[in-house]
Amino acid sequence: MRFEGQPRRHFDQKGLEDLADDILDKGQKTPVRVCKHSEQKGVFVLIGGERRWRAFGIIRDRTNTDPVVDAFIDIIYDERHHFREAFFDNLQREDLVPVDEAAAYRRLYIESTARSHHAKVTEIAKDAKKSFTHVENYLYMDSLPGAVKDLMNPLWPKSQRLTVTAAIEIARSTDNPTLQLAIAKEAIERDLGVAETRGLISLKTGRSGYGVSGRLRKPSDDYRVFKSFLLGTLHRAKRFEEGLDINALYETRDDENYDRETDAKALEILIGHLNNIHESIKGK
In this protein, which residues make up the domain named ParB-like N-terminal (predicted)? Predict the structure, then answer.
């Protein structure tokens, strides 16, 4: 049976279907890990290998038979030990969802008997074979409200998801859940990169002399935001130029001529602003 405390909550359905195909074609390559149920005789509980276990469920539904699952029986001492074993087994998988990983670190942090924050994070990092910074950043990410974590849904297209780096930056910048959600949504809608997201955070939080704090802007802050604008604009312009068939793009529009004229005028205005900025940079 499934371990209800399984730290991994998200599974790619297509990946499971592919795994089921592979098992049917080539057989099971690696046994799952199980332990005896603490209360029910003859019942075994998964420790590691839930993707394989789910794939066998798909095979059962396809064939209307109960497939034989190869398993290695391990010894588990208590529920805490079970959770740790299950998590560290999943941690080796490349497709472990960051939100699940962060939640697991939080549980390990809470259950740790170490006395200080630094000692707790160090202990987890050592056991997980991760850096101190990695674990601490993921703990920050886990502190985000559910509405922000939902924006990291692995089932959504990548372009519509909040990135791990952006989530960490947001979590470290403010503990205001309303502001965290607003920044996250804007970062996704504007398809911001790391540097641009940091600039947005600065504007929204005032941490670098912008926005809500009312402090004066610093030249170094202005330059960082300006540089991120330049790099982001250059990157997007190259991507649109090299990756889009402009004519095909407009052929799908209801009013092709109007959209072409409107967008051309907008580009002319943008180019004018960029030329003015260009002249100012060259002027000194």
Answer: 1-96
